[in-house]
Amino acid sequence: MVQPVGDLKRLEQNARDGPSDTYQLAKWRILNRLHDRNETMYYKVLIDNIEEYAPIVYTLTVGAVCQNYSGLFRRPRGMYFSAEDRGEMMSMVYNWPADQVDMIVVTDGSRILGLGDLGVQGIGIAIGKLDLYVAAAGINPQRVLPVMIDVGTNNEKLLKDPLYLGLQEHRLEGEEYVEIIDEFMEAVFSRWPNVIVQFEDFQSKWAFRLLQRYRKTYRMFNDDVQGTAGVAIAGLLGAVRAQGRPMIDFPKQKIVVAGAGSAGIGVVNAASRTMARMLGNNEVAFESARSQFWIVDAHGLITEERVDIDPDARPFARRKSELTHQGLNEGASLIEVVKKVKPDVILGLSAVGGLFSKEVLEALKDSSSSRPAIFAMSNPTKNAECTPEEAFSIIGEKVVFSSGSPFDDVDLGDGKIGHSNQGNNMYLFPGIGLGTLLSGARIVSDGMLQAAAERLASYMKEEEVLQGIIYPPTSRIRDITKEVAAAVVREAVAEDLAEGYRDMDARELARLSEEETVDYVKNNMWNPVYPTVVYKKD
Ligand SMILES: NC(=O)C1=CN([C@@H]2O[C@H](COP(=O)(O)OP(=O)(O)OC[C@H]3O[C@@H](n4cnc5c(N)ncnc54)[C@H](O)[C@@H]3O)[C@@H](O)[C@H]2O)C=CC1
Ligand SMILES: CC(=O)C(=O)O
Ligand SMILES: [Mg+2]
């Protein structure tokens, strides 16, 4: 047995008190040391055991890693730009030792999973996401770059922590903040014009603004807004099929969304656009699609009567005329909304663990759907809006369940299983990045994101969705990522955005059949094998 894997197995056998946080962190430390010592072997271990180790290098353990990063820190990984580096970022980037960087995941640490502002310690999430880029998408590990932009933190505990690694001052805001992100973008795209930048775990107000600011000029996307939306759409379409209905019935679904942050609004925006397209893509279609969503945030149901309504949520605020008819008011509680609307789906992106309480789940029993669906998407595990045990025990075996962090399936007795799906953007972001890279697309368009979501939705077979399995198991993540990337490449070609990659120019890309595109993607994925040291002539 490979030494570090042996260490992991011994740790499991010797841990007497079960999977406590310390135990999770110890596992992460063993893997992290291997990452530092032998990158090829690390990724071999990760790829071959992805189901077992993704929950360690990614959610859930990565949450605990970020919370404790200053104490866990042994060696630097990635680049740190601080507010004090203003004016120096270009030279810092040109000093980075890699000639080519394909993928950057950048965060400012302001909203790490559902754990809030973790400041510079949020670098752990950028490292974890890039681990999946290598393991799932086969991006060469020498060409990935985790980035932390340290503009301070508003986390009072970290501001007083003597071990804290970052700037111990409150966050920069306003134009000063934007200038720093602008400088970073200019620097990385000057040195590596073909890099793709994934924005990760920025607090909502900046997530939307920065996405609008850069998306038409740079190869970038926001994973929380756009990746999450695609994964949710694929799952929502799966939930329709699980009822034995065709996907085209999606616009009839009534969906209650708890959470109006970057993730929740991203989902409602993209899902309503998908519905509208199915209905004919005109004004009437958009209006009809909009009326299928009820958004509840920390202050209750969002309606047009809300004072100081967030502009991103405004289009989905329930109209006054609809409210009287539905018997609901501005600020109505989640339970009230579920009782009155009898939704087909409740979808949580609130970061509030247990929000789908017994009462909410009881109310969902009156859903107008033959198979109500629950998406408890908040991370990490303790932030899930409910557990699969709660969902299946209260609503029964017909419920379709998915969560952002992994949970075990539920034994329903009599040989029946309640499937616990993982509805996490990890099923899309690696394929979006890889497809953008291999197409050489100038930007990441809405069409490319939609193609990614549709490929994920169609990946699940009829017999699987009818059993309530709406997302693939993590063990198939490399295969699904290849398919998603191929769909992204083809859409980039169709939209005339593709400029080609290495020897494959845009014209040749356009000539590839669907199958050849999948092969092209597969042949460009990195595999963990040691490079040949001695030249051997065949
Ligand atoms: N499964 C996945 O792939 C993903 C999951 N997420 C998770 O989504 C969660 C939210 O992320 P963001 O939108 O960026 O955060 P955010 O902090 O911007 O938004 C949270 C939203 O939840 C609302 N909220 C708070 N308490 C509530 C309550 N009691 N009832 C209803 N709504 C309530 C807030 O008003 C706010 O609108 C996080 O836990 C994150 O881990 C985010 C991206 C991807
Ligand atoms: C999965 C993810 O991106 C998040 O929870 O923020
Ligand atoms: Mg995220």
UniProtKB/TrEMBL annotation:
Belongs to the malic enzymes family. It catalyses: (S)-malate + NAD(+) = pyruvate + CO2 + NADH. The lineage of its organism: Eukaryota, Viridiplantae, Streptophyta, Embryophyta, Tracheophyta. Divalent metal cations. Prefers magnesium or manganese. Residues 225-493 form the Malic enzyme NAD-binding domain. It is found in: Mitochondrion. The active site is at Y58 (proton donor), K129 (proton acceptor). A divalent metal cation binds at E200, D201, D224. One of its GO terms (cellular component) is mitochondrion. The keyword Metal-binding applies. Residues 35-215 form the Malic enzyme N-terminal domain. Keywords: Metal-binding, Mitochondrion, NAD, Oxidoreductase, Transit peptide. Its cofactor is Mg(2+); Mn(2+). GO terms for biological process: malate metabolic process. (S)-malate binds at R111, N379, N424. The keyword Hydrolase does not apply. Its main location: mitochondrion. One of its GO terms (molecular function) is metal ion binding. It comes from the Eukaryota. This is Malic enzyme. InterPro entries: Aminoacid_DH-like_N_sf (IPR046346), Malic_enzyme_CS (IPR015884), Malic_N_dom (IPR012301), Malic_N_dom_sf (IPR037062), Malic_NAD-bd (IPR012302), Malic_OxRdtase (IPR001891), NAD(P)-bd_dom_sf (IPR036291). It comes from Triticum aestivum (Wheat).
